[in-house]
Design goal:
The complex is a heterodimer. Chain A is about 30% helix and about 25% strand. In chain A, strands 5-24-23-20-19 form a 5-stranded mixed β-sheet. Chain A has 14 helices and 24 strands. Chain A is of the alpha+beta class. Chain A has 3 domains: about 325 residues, no CATH class; about 90 residues, Rossmann fold (3-Layer(aba) Sandwich); about 60 residues, Dna Ligase, domain 1. By secondary structure, chain B is mainly alpha-helical. Chain B has 2 domains: about 150 residues, no CATH class; about 160 residues, no CATH class. Chain B has 15 helices and no strands. In chain B, α1 packs antiparallel against α7, α2 crosses α8 and α8 packs antiparallel against α15. Classes of the chains: A alpha+beta, B mainly alpha. At the A-B interface, α8, β9, β11 and β12 of A face α1, α5 and α6 of B. Chain A: It comes from Anatilimnocola aggregata.
């Protein structure tokens, strides 16, 4: 399979500078792909898909009655990021999460950023995800947001932007690890001659972080992952992470609060839990504090949390900062809290909560992408240039009736990566979700989840809406490889005499 | 370990063993029907009776043809105890405890389920059913092997083993019961050529023929029953299954072999002792079917006691047993 007919069109292509001209970072892979015999790559793609099926690497789709699981769509051509560029991304992400964490802490406590007008009053006063019960709290070690998945995109000029911050329960990191595993199983030759930074240590880093935030005085903390259960769209990931960390995966009904502590019900009675990596939303965590009808949570959990006898990751309340209206102010917040200029810029964003910007959005709605401030998973987004007049009118009304809840951005021509389409390659749009762990220090997993819009021309990369993924390779610059120590030969049948002789 | 997880692992393993044994039931009849010719047609009904699902079968099919019985026992998802349903149950349980079992276990079980589900929609399977059911038996053994070789032999493993052994004890008793049903209409055949063939097929269905010959030599009904019920060493013998499940139960309770810590141990210990001190002559004199029936009832009581002791949510006032 070759790239002779491959077109980059008007988009930034992650692999080619121009048709027939690979970027420096991808030259080696391009020649390797081209050297494969006819049909070879498709065969490996098929075997990758079979492996995914056999491994049961699936996600759940809401609203599909029969067989709620779908196999995770995966494309064998990786996306490559140069080590130098990655350094910049990593610094940018660390800067961002540091400032966001300071912001969350400030919002729930002194609110200096409001007093100093770093952000407008209306932004916080009306924030849907601000949790009153968290006011005046400071979580262990002062960290609110322990696990972050930040979405990055590249526009037609190759500029990398932050698209949004996912500070609540970001999903997808298990697929980063599984994608790598599948690549190694089905296309090991692809790695020859490269030094790709490893991702396999993520679960260890996650466990270190979770143990780090354990309540004071607990030496050997018991960590659990809390899942809503088998029907949740990310259930696979919850299992995966619990298994890789070697900790229990629990459901709300497995936990109870007794004598001021959280316990899990085991075959030998109750056992104390110190740290909960919760993958259920804030409002379901504790029916006594939040939604009374929640059966997913643990009654009384928040009391134990407030008393400092159990740690929760992420801390309840972080959602206040993944509001898309707050997103628009992050560069300002970085300046305010860190006195630094932003390293990774935002996509230019109009905030409808500001009157002038709102007028501009309504006047130019057919050129913009409009997003609700508090949705995730790609729901509720309007692509202005592709929308009908009726849809545009509907959104104008929505914005007018609740301007606080909307932001708008120019439509980006997301960068593309060659993707296998039957017997040839076609460019498909991608984004990138790196994962950041904030514990003793800040760790950024090299690469992250490259999501790809598998439908031709589509910009929607969400797996719930037909997106797939690719392995993401961050190249280690200047790496020279390791060597094996020499080993004594192994004994084989009939060889005893030889060993006796020596 | 979590009660919910223990429950899932126990049933995951039990359901896999159940699927294997259904395949064994079917295979013994397939062999018999080849050897007995047209007379064998009447031998499909007992299979349904020994599985205990005759009402469900009557509802869904009615007529006891080979085709109907195989469909019902192997592929019908409306039958909760069909092979495909058992594997779906096993897989769903495995999915809820995926973090507890090894990746290899999950992958093989997933593949096992997918292959049986595909077979359910493939009518050509019925052209060579024997091969297919042998594959099911092998895949189930593969699961057992992978479980033993990739899972730490601690509490979760003991629950898996306990589930498998209790199921196996129950199913061996049912395999033996098939023979009882088959014998009923033709008591005159006892001791004839046909009878030998049938007992031989029965042993084969428990993969017991060679081991039986080493132990007893000639095929004689009383010895066959003796071997499948009372043998201590043969891995599918009911007695052996009880001895080994008692070991696992004791390991789970964490206790000493000379103490009884809960009702489950008490019930299993009593049943094991009953079998231990039984003689085959007494069993046959008292009625083989009646013995088997009683055995199954007591085995169900053991299952219920395990559920109560380990899986049922403990009352929330339970005293914590662990702290820092």
């Amino acid at each position: 399979m070759d790239f002779s007919a491959y077109q980059t069109d008007e988009f930034y292509d992650e692999m080619f500078e121009a048709p027939g001209k690979p970027r420096e970072r991808s030259q080696h892979l391009v020649s390797r792909l081209q050297s494969l015999s006819a049909g070879e790559l498709q065969r490996r793609q098929k075997s990758a898909e079979l492996a995914l099926l056999n491994m049961g690497i699936t996600f759940n789709v809401y609203g599909h009655e029969a067989g709620t699981e779908k196999v995770w769509p995966f494309d064998l051509v990786p996306r490559i990021i140069d080590g130098g560029e990655w350094d910049m991304i990593e610094r940018g992400l660390k800067q961002r999460i540091t400032a966001l964490n300071m912001f969350i802490d400030d919002v729930y406590n002194a609110q200096y950023c409001l007093r100093d007008k770093a952000v407008p009053d209306w932004l916080i006063g009306s924030a849907k995800n601000l949790l009153e019960p968290c006011r005046g709290m400071t979580p262990p070690k002062g960290i609110w947001c322990h696990i972050t998945g930040t979405d990055l995109v590249r526009d037609t000029n190759g500029q990398m932007y932050v698209l949004e911050d996912n500070l609540r329960c970001p999903s997808g990191v298990s697929y980063v690890l599984e994608n790598r595993e599948i690549m190694k199983r089905t296309f090991p030759q692809g790695f020859d001659g490269f030094s790709v930074l490893p991702v396999e240590d993520y679960p260890d880093r996650l466990l270190d972080m979770l143990q780090h935030i354990a309540p004071e005085g607990v030496n050997d903390p018991t960590v659990v992952v809390l899942t809503p259960g088998i029907y949740n769209s990310a259930y696979f990931e919850h299992c995966f992470l619990a298994q890789r960390m070697g900790v229990e995966l629990v459901q709300g009904s497995d936990l109870c609060v007794t004598n001021g502590h959280v316990f899990m019900r085991t075959t030998k009675g109750l056992e104390r839990v110190d740290v909960i990596y919760r993958r259920i939303d804030d409002e379901f965590l504790d029916p006594k504090t939040f939604r009374a009808d929640s059966t997913l949570g643990v009654p009384g959990l928040m009391d134990v949390y407030r008393a400092g006898r159990v740690a929760l990751a992420n801390a309840p309340g972080t959602g206040v900062a993944d509001d898309k209206a707050v997103y628009a102010f992050v560069p300002q917040l970085i300046k305010y809290f860190l006195n630094e200029d932003v390293i990774l810029p935002n996509v230019p964003t109009f905030v409808c909560g500001e009157e002038q910007q709102c007028d501009h959005v309504i006047a130019n709605i057919d050129k913009l992408v409009v997003k609700p401030a508090n949705e995730s998973g790609g729901y509720g987004i309007l692509l202005g240039p592709r929308a009908s007049k009726a849809e545009l009118d509907k959104y104008k009304d929505l914005i007018r009736s609740n301007p606080r809840n909307y932001v708008a951005q120019p439509m980006l021509g997301l960068s593309r990566v060659p993707t296998i389409v039957e017997d040839h390659f076609e460019g498909r749009h991608v984004d990138l979700r790196p994962y950041i762990l904030y514990g003793k220090d800040i760790f950024v997993l090299p690469g992250g989840l490259t999501r790809v819009a598998l439908r031709k021309g589509s910009l929607v990369v969400n797996s719930s809406q037909g997106g797939g993924s690719k392995d993401t390779w961050v190249l280690r610059n200047g790496y020279t490889g390791g060597r094996f120590p020499t080993q004594r030969q192994t004994m084989t049948n009939g060889s005893q005499s030889q060993y006796q002789a020596s | 370990m979590l009660s919910r997880v223990a429950d899932s692992i126990f049933w995951m393993s039990r359901a896999i063993e159940r699927a294997q044994n259904i395949a064994r039931f079917i295979n013994v009849n397939l062999k018999l029907s080849l050897e007995l010719g047209p007379a064998a047609q009447s031998q499909w009904a007992p299979l349904i009776y020994t599985s205990g699902d005759q009402e469900r079968f009557a509802e869904l099919y009615g007529e006891f043809t080979q085709r109907n019985v195989i469909d019902f026992l192997a592929f019908d998802s409306k039958n909760d105890n069909s092979i495909v349903s058992c594997l779906r149950t096993a897989r769903e349980n495995a999915r809820t405890v995926r973090e507890m079992i090894s990746t290899m276990m999950w992958e093989e079980l997933n593949k096992f389920f997918l292959s049986v589900r595909a077979a359910a929609n493939d009518q050509t399977i019925l052209d060579s059913p024997y091969e297919f059911f042998t594959q099911v038996i092998l895949a189930s053994h593969l699961m057992e092997g992978i479980t033993d070789a990739t899972m730490s032999h601690d509490e979760p493993w003991h629950f898996a083993r306990l589930g498998r052994l209790l199921e196996r004890a129950d199913k061996t008793s049912r395999i033996l019961d098939v023979k009882y049903f088959i014998l009923l209409p033709s008591v005159g055949d006892v001791g004839t050529n046909i009878d030998t063939i049938q007992w031989g097929a029965l042993l084969e269905s428990a993969s017991a023929l060679e081991m039986y010959r080493k132990r007893h030599g000639r095929i004689a009904p009383e010895s066959v029953a003796d071997f499948l019920i009372l043998d201590r060493e043969f891995p599918r013998a009911m007695h052996h299954c009880l001895i080994e499940s008692e070991k696992s139960l004791s390991a789970i309770a964490g206790g000493r072999a000379d103490r009884v810590y809960n009702v489950a141990e008490q019930k299993l210990g009593r049943l094991r002792a009953d079998v231990n001190y039984s003689l085959i002559r007494e069993i046959i004199d008292g009625g083989l079917h009646e013995f088997i029936d009683g055995f199954q009832v007591k085995l169900n009581e053991v299952g219920a006691a395990i559920h109560e002791t380990f899986f049922a949510a403990p009352p929330s006032i339970l005293e914590p047993v662990s702290s820092q």
